[in-house]
């Protein structure tokens, strides 16, 4: 099996059944804040676009690149489609002209012509990507197996392992979020939170690596880079231990410190050969891989200069002064707030957006989303649970394009600041991810179906429910207890075991207590 790196989570897989192109992202995403790192725009995308199969893991725009699909990817390729609860991914691909689909069933093997087998596991909670995330397992005709986990976070890896040894394991290691950079916190607090998040990301990836026990580990799906002057500080080139976007070389160095030596970095154009006997070889488009990463800032600065015209053109497209933001929000969003019984109750209060002039901190309009009264109105000075500050033209653009997912656009752009009272509230982000009736009704149904898990486990003298209240991760695998605090290492959520109270977010208490001593 041959795997050619094509940037970020993208790769070109060659098998006995033909080629599979995965997540081909090239163009800037999230209000032109994210760019692939390293630059992959010089690859021959017209040739790559002739792949026999196309796999798009999910709708995040660093995986779903509409412009690249339109200009370079053959519409006659066969799409390996994950089984998602909504039809959005298929609908968007069909709108671009794709017309051949293999509609997979989650965790069921499909055999392709030539004896190659593929399986896609679809994750479907409201917090998995934009209503869905997935991983691709491939077994070549000679028995070589790879797992492209990209940035999915499965709670159970056994579905991939029951079919035999994994020879190549590709997974995310770097940050893909806006926390803590955008929060209005002292720099020391941001650094501490960032360091914790960076370490937790490494630890989580290592847990997956240890579970899979693949012959070779490929760090992929990050980091992005930030080429706008306003965001450039987010690049990990300033020696900040709290930066959440470490690069592939930093991660591989850390893995080797943990005793994991079988690692392969893919630059755009790197070609790895993987065999069923556990052997591997790789050729890179540069002579000295470490020297290339040592010159990372120079690469970023040159990349930034190349992309400056593109950045300016993107920014020029955002303003839509003809849109009455308040009235348009009332028209489109208030009916959704009325339907959001579980989510609105979970938010439990008002959320405010302070909208500023372009490239300025000057607030020109403040709008409150009141999830108690289910109304949207101008700010009246009352306290709010969450506050976001962003440029008014970004909201104008979201309304202009009728964007249904502000998480997969505004929030991931990091072009905002945030403040909150109290704990993190996942329902806030769930709502702004579900600004369509289809998404909202699915999310509401998912939350309505959640029930306490009746199975308990004993860990370190504590008896706790087995499943994490957040996303049902198995706490016997992902749980860690220190000084009476349980941490689920899947997403870093914490609970006080004495009270059962969640220390991370409201509404997710756990069943816990001291374990009874065994009978004599």
TrEMBL record:
Positions of transmembrane segments: none
PROSITE patterns: RIESKE
Domain of life: Bacteria
Record-linked InterPro entries: RibonucZ/Hydroxyglut_hydro, Rieske_2Fe-2S, Rieske_2Fe-2S_sf, SCP2_Rv3818
Keywords noted in UniProt: 2Fe-2S, Iron, Iron-sulfur, Metal-binding
Keyword Iron: yes
Domain Rieske: 464-520
Keyword Iron found: yes
Pfam families: Rieske, SCP2_Rv3818
Name this protein carries in UniProt: Rieske 2Fe-2S domain-containing protein
Native source species: Glycomyces rhizosphaerae
């Amino acid at each position: 099996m041959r795997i050619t790196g094509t940037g970020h989570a993208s790769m070109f897989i060659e098998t006995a059944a033909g080629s599979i192109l995965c997540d081909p992202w090239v163009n800037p995403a999230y209000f032109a804040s994210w760019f692939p790192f390293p630059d992959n725009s010089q690859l021959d995308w017209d040739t790559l676009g002739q792949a026999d199969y196309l796999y798009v893991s999910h709708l995040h725009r660093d995986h779903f690149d509409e412009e690249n699909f339109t200009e370079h990817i053959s519409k006659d390729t066969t799409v390996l489609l994950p089984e998602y609860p909504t039809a959005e991914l298929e609908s968007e691909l069909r709108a671009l002209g794709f017309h051949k689909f293999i509609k997979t069933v989650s965790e069921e093997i499909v055999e392709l012509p030539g004896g190659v087998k593929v399986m896609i596991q679809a994750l479907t909670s409201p917090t998995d990507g934009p209503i869905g995330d997935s991983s691709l397992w491939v077994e070549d005709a000679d028995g070589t197996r790879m797992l492209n986990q990209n940035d999915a976070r499965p709670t159970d890896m056994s579905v991939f392992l029951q079919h035999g040894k994994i020879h190549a394991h590709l997974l995310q290691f770097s940050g893909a979020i806006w926390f803590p950079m955008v929060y209005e916190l002292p720099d020391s607090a941001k650094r501490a939170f960032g360091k914790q998040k960076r370490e937790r990301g490494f630890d989580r990836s290592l847990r997956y690596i240890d579970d899979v026990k693949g012959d070779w580990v490929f760090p992929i799906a990050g980091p992005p880079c930030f080429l706008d002057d306003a965001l450039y500080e987010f690049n990990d080139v300033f020696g900040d231990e709290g930066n959440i976007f470490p690069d592939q070389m930093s991660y591989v160095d850390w893995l080797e410190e943990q005793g994991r030596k079988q690692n392969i970095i893919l630059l755009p154009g790197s070609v790895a050969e993987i065999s069923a006997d556990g052997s591997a070889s790789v050729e890179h488009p540069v002579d000295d891989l470490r020297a290339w990463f040592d010159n990372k800032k120079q690469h970023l600065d040159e990349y930034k200069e190349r992309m400056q015209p593109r950045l300016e053109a993107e920014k020029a497209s955002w303003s839509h002064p003809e849109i009455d933001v308040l009235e348009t929000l009332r028209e489109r969003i208030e009916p959704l707030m009325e339907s959001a019984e579980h989510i609105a109750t979970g938010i439990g209060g008002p959320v405010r957006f302070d909208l500023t002039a372009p490239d300025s901190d000057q607030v020109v309009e403040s709008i409150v989303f009141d999830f108690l009264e289910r109304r949207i109105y101008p700010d009246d000075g009352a306290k709010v649970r969450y506050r976001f500050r962003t440029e008014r033209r970004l909201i104008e653009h979201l309304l202009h394009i009728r964007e249904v997912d502000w998480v997969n656009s505004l929030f991931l752009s990091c072009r905002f600041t945030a403040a909150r009272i109290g704990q993190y509230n996942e329902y806030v982000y769930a709502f702004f991810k579900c600004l369509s009736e289809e998404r909202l009704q699915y999310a509401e149904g998912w939350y309505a179906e959640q029930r306490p898990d009746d199975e308990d486990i004993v860990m370190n003298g504590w008896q706790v429910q087995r499943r994490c209240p957040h996303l049902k991760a198995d706490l016997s695998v992902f749980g860690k207890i220190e000084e009476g605090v349980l941490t689920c290492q899947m997403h870093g959520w914490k609970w006080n075991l004495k009270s059962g109270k969640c220390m991370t977010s409201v509404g997710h208490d756990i069943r816990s207590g001291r374990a009874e001593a065994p009978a004599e």
